[in-house]
Design goal:
With 136 residues, this protein is α+β, with helices and mostly antiparallel strands. 38% of the residues lie in helices and 22% in strands. The chain contains 5 helices and 7 strands. Strands 3-4-5 form a 3-stranded antiparallel beta sheet. Helix 4 (109-117) packs across helix 5.
Amino acid sequence: MQNEVNITLQELRKRIQSKSEIQGNCLIWNGWTAGTGGNSPWIRIDGKQMAIRPLLLKLARNKTVKENHRMVMKCGNACCLRVSHMVEKSRSQIAKDAAKKRSPILMKASGLAQAKRQGWAKLTQDQHAEIWSDQE
């Protein structure tokens, strides 16, 4: 699939540079984005649309992303393409990390019961009453 694409690391870097800008330590992609959340950098090569990060990782480090794993950015910027910011994580680890960042205060009442079941939020009596009042 991605290893079938005919492009060199230098050519890919030129294409990335033409649609990116440096912000702090990050190389921010300003081109086409897609994927979950709509903010993963994508590119078209030889008529094929593909995510840039796995291709960049393959060409720069000769490494492929394992099945059920994704590339996440240490910097937290979804559009960053700096290879040194890339970290491979399992989908379950990504979900666990996301759950740790969630704040019950920012969630809708309907999401609080689910948060409690998943063990990452404390449900107060007032929140419990609010959830059940919405159900009526």
